[in-house]
Amino acid sequence: MNKRQKKTLTRIILSAAIMILLSGFQYFFRDLLDIDPSGWLKFFAYLVPYILVGYDILLKAWKGIKHRQPFDENFLMAVASIGAIVLGRVRTGDYAEGAAVMLFYQIGELFQSVAIGKSRRNISALMDIRPDSANLETEAGQVETVDPDEVETGSILVVRTGEKVPIDGIVVEGTSSLDTSALTGESVPRTVREGDEVLSGCINQQGLLRIRTTREFGDSTASKILDLVENASSRKSRPEAFITKFARIYTPAVCFAALALALLPPLFLLLTGQSADWGDWIMRALTFLVISCPCALVISIPLTFFAGIGGASSSGILVKGSNYFEGLAKIGTVVFDKTGTMTEGVFEVSGVHHAPAGEQYVLRMAALAESYSTHPIAQSLRRACGAEISRDSVTDVREISGQGVIATVEGHQVAAGNEKLMDAFSIQSEPCSSVGTVVHVAVDGVYQGHILIADQVKPAAAATVEALHQLGIGKTVMLTGDHQKAAQAVAAEIGMDEVYAELLPEDKLRKVEELMQAQTGRTLAFVGDGINDAPVLSRADLGIAMGALGSDAAIEAADVVLMDDNPLKVAKAIRIARKCLRIAYQNIVFAIAVKLICLVLGALGIASMWLAIFADVGVMVLAVLNAVRALRVKNL
Amino acid sequence: MKKTYPIEVDCANCAAKMEDAAKKTPGVQDCVVNFMTLKMTVTFEEGKKPADVMPLVLERCKAVEDDCEIHF
User: Fold this and answer.
1) DSSP A200-242
2) Which among A67, A247, A298 has CB closest to B64?
3) Is A522 helix (H, G, I), strand (E, B) or coil?
4) Which residue among A51, A98, A366, A408 has the highest number of C-beta atoms inside a 10 angstrom radius?
5) CATH number, domain at A406?
6) pTM exceeds 0.90 for this model
7) Fold of the B2-67 domain
8) Distance from CA of B48 to the nearest CA of A (A)
9) How far apart are CA A428 and CA A423, in angstroms?
10) Which range of residues forms the domain containing residue A442?
11) A337 counts as catalytic
12) What ipTM describes this predicted complex?
């Protein structure tokens, strides 16, 4: 509790004590009341706890009127409680009701402010990745502690055991294991050594690291993630937008309804010649006002989404706005990219077939032809080749998208790629009987055999597809640029419903659009690793980028970012979203239903002001407690 | 130019009022108040200095929500 909350608590306790004393006094010493026949003494006695607990509300209501923005909850409470006290003066002689309204309202407000403060702290603790300082090594070799904001790119920083890496960089000295759990939600530490990239927000668990920063603080991973999470709640979901609009119309509407309730029935009674009974109807109108306070809704819905976003981030799932929770909850089709998403994306040469000139020759030719490429296949060819490759002998490299590469190597024209490339040069190629990516190699138009490169399916891939089916997601689709046979083998292994193979990047985009048109009412999510599928990520109803730590393009294009590369997190994200929305709708329906019932009861004169204030505070407490539930997502 | 300031405010409704008031302040192009993180992000108009604009923003916010605070 902060200072202001403690002060409010003291006021509440004091005021409640005075009220209990007063009513006890009244009960036991009824005779003494004879000395106060006018009732003014009692009136002033009750005014003490009332003013004590509610003076700030009265002031705020007055200021609201002065600034011509009267219709807020302070106004409602001020009018209701003052009205009850005035009525007490002229009619019943009972002031407890008016004072109690203010007292309970303040209890509710205090509870709400403490609950929000607590969940705010919980969430910031989950996202505690912002480094407070950086240890900058100066040119003289001394270490100075500075604000991370002031560190220039290329500086050398020292990260000691237990400290957070403040800024993204590359290790120049030392080995350590890094705790990445704050970023990825994964508890397995990562080992880094010289030359490895380290991301800000990771905690150095052992040893001393010297790193050279590669970015400024503001562009570093930790800052970006925090930015993303903090801005997420400014993109409003539909329930939130609904509540904002609802509150704007609702409060004035109820005020006028209350006014009508106070005036119309008595006037009608007067005109029909009966007793108007003004006091009773005004009391009902005031009860109406107390019930009408929309706080439960106004606070619990944004709190739900905020808690949901916080809970998801703690599991390594960044949702870029509360609106995306709706998209996640309504997913009907999940489209996966194959490489790097369902498979490890690490290619290894597993064989060289039909090679009359020898395996090593074929490998060397292919590796040389692809020596300028950074594609994973090219990298695995280089690894398999073993020996250092000199690019000097390679000229006229031409990459043909979706087919392969042609280049002049040591004076010979080498073509390395898939069947289509061979067909384009009218070279007869031998099909491979094993599953994997096949690179056919031809030198000077003569077929020299093919290299089989296989990718490993991720251990969690099959479980992911099964989990999605269990969540009622009707269709799982895999897209890949790979060979049909390789794609189908992987799809069968992990239980994917549909697979489309041999797609160029632009084909993937078209396929996703087709699939999006094929379904109505539900959303399509595309899961990719952000490498060359950024357009598809942003085109899909919901783009989910995977293993996106450090990849700016993916974080930019996606709506949901999975910090590590475990596809099971897709299912978890859906479950978190569904839970969050369920809670939001529960709160909306529950709060509005209770309010409406109480409004009707109040108008009929059945609900007293006591019931009204209990309904108001009670609904709010329950709604806030329910909202905080969205934070608990560990076991989803 | 965009800057983010920590704020103190009690209720979601009051935060929305502050946002409205800040948006209407001369020199402010746009403003988003995030009640959950207690942050106010102000986009300033071209050529305006935050140091000149922010006192005015605070004044206007104080007018609609008496016990709010902006730390700048």
Assistant:
1) TT-EE-SS-EEEEE-S-GGGSHHHHHHHHHHHHTTS--HHHHH
2) A67
3) coil
4) A366
5) 3.40.1110.10
6) no
7) Alpha-Beta Plaits (3.30.70)
8) 22
9) 7
10) 344-456
11) yes
12) 0.75
